[in-house]
Queue: 3 jobs
Job 1
Amino acid sequence: MDQTLLLGVGALLTLALVTGIVTLVKTGQARRLKERVSVAGALESQAALQSGLPSIRLQTNETQPLVQRFLRLLRFNPDLPQEQVIPWWLTILLGVIAGALGGYYIGFLIGRSMSVPLGIVLGFFAIRGLFGWQHQRYVESMFVQIPDAIGMMVRAIRAGLPVGEAMRSVAAEMTAPLREEFARMLGDVAVGRPVDQALMRLYKRTELPEFSFLAVTLGLQSQTGGNLAETLENLADIVRKRVALAKRAKALAAEARMQAGILMVLPYIAALAMSQIQDFYIENFFYNPTGQKLLMVGLGFSVFGYLVIRWMIKRAGSD
């Protein structure tokens, strides 16, 4: 009973810690923005008095690096709230529940002394997995839209429109989620940030290298000149081939993922069939303490093997 209470207290502390950190970031963004604006306004006013010239340049000092690193480790990006299909508080709650249940049942195998730290580790990876799944889903849906967006920019530039208007056409006519990201990038450009730097900020938010390609292309073209429409058309062709290659790799990996799922489910199908033939073989896994431990070991190895296979498939596809 004491160990169960200790496990519950550990789960609640973990929930409080993660929720507090995420809430601090979510609720502190507006406050930090006001502070930066006020500080920058005071500094610019002082500089204007000394030089006699007005300025609208703002300082953007980064704050709370440890919190940002922890959120990055969780795969939670506060700059992309639209990627969260599941609310962040529900994601944390599900992770804590998974950690508490996992730690409670692991205590049967290795003792209650290790159930709390292992439950915290399981909860952490569950939260990270949910946040990572939502981020990957958001990024993949954006990735397939990039060739069409660059093609739209090429057509607009060939029609005689400047780069800024071509990007506005993308923000107005493309579908979500690329439309919102381009609109946010154009907001950065509207306050005085160069186009290439605004695209690099978009690359840092989404971690899609195609945005860095576009940023480098526009930056070099602004410095060296040349036919921008032709350069963007070549870039669109390269990105389109990358998208097609990624889809082909995903299709080829579907067979391996299916095999991994079959390998995970097959022992339990065999156990179900055995329970229909000889009941007492399976009853020992549910009513005998030793059988319960063996059942948990088997379940743990099955999940671990499935995750390792998926990790190997993902690494092979990324290479």
Job 2
Amino acid sequence: MAELIQASSSVSSFESSNYEVFLSYKWEDTRNNFISFLHKALKDSGINVFLDSKELWTGDAIGPAIESAIEGSKIWIPVFSSGYADSQWCLWELAQIVQCHRSNDHRLILPIFCYVGPYDVQHQTGSRFEKAFQEHEKKFKPDIVKNWRDALELVGNLKGEILDETK
């Protein structure tokens, strides 16, 4: 992931972002349903929200823009879905969120568990999370994978909103 960020030489328009909320989510799982509704509800309430598909411009360096948006946000909302751990970008975002959270305890992480349980996030269990990490362990250095696992464990242990078939 660091290689992807360093490889990009574009200057981002996010050098000093100040978002109230940063949404982290797996595009394919939640973009056209839950995230769209959540984003609209937050924007309609006057909340300044970072949503990558709305805020990034063609030519922006993706990694630095997202990192700046994370650092400049007051609240982070990771929306965990069954495919969240498949995405190295989602895991990288979450690790960045946790790093910022640890350095400034005035900001909040408000997790949403969308058809996935907190236990599966915390322990990387369940077929998709387990399988995703088996693949990540083949492709990435152990310290990167450990950082991702630690971030999932910390955030999976936070009180969050659980969305399932009953809600």
Job 3
Amino acid sequence: MSEVKHQLNHYIPIAKTIAHMFGSSCEVVIHDLTQPQSSVIFTINHHVTGRAVGQSFDHLVKEVLLSDEFDEDYLAGYEIKTEDARTIKASTTLLRDDKDQVIGALCINYDMSTVSHVKELIDKLVPGLAKEVPAASPKKSKDTLQSVDEIADRLIEQIISHQKGSLKKRQEKIELIRFMDEKGIFLMKGSVDKVAERLGISKVTVYSYLDELKKMKESEETS
């Protein structure tokens, strides 16, 4: 067992406690972000989103790291949608080692289906009782912005270093860029430059691969 996985295993009792506290609608997932392509190492109540050990992360970059509300290594209460249109209330906390490096993430996913039905019933019985007051979106601190950049750098490094292929062939590089694109890596500032440098190719080449992938996806959707 790797040292990182050994450290992350210490969070399993916490994950189980949360899941048992809030019941079967609450899924808790632990990710090993030093193994991005197969980051899920533990899950409980996985029927909520279908997360399984050996899968990769999904919402870490797009919903968490890029959120204006992400600060101090956590984001609580954001919403995601399942393929069957259920609303999931999610929270993510990054996990660091004793050297202050991000090594993992603990994610809580709560199926709001039952809660939504209860809310609808209350709204019908007592109209206007629950009025939501929009909260102001806090801006990320300078330390958090720097932390996000460091996490992005580390994710790119880990993704490339754990690629199974030799990365000498064009198709291997395209598939790697496809994975990073799907995970939202290229939405992060400076990521194209970093990936190009790490792969030993030009920025123009990275953009041409992304354009090729976009056209392939559009072709698949129309066929």
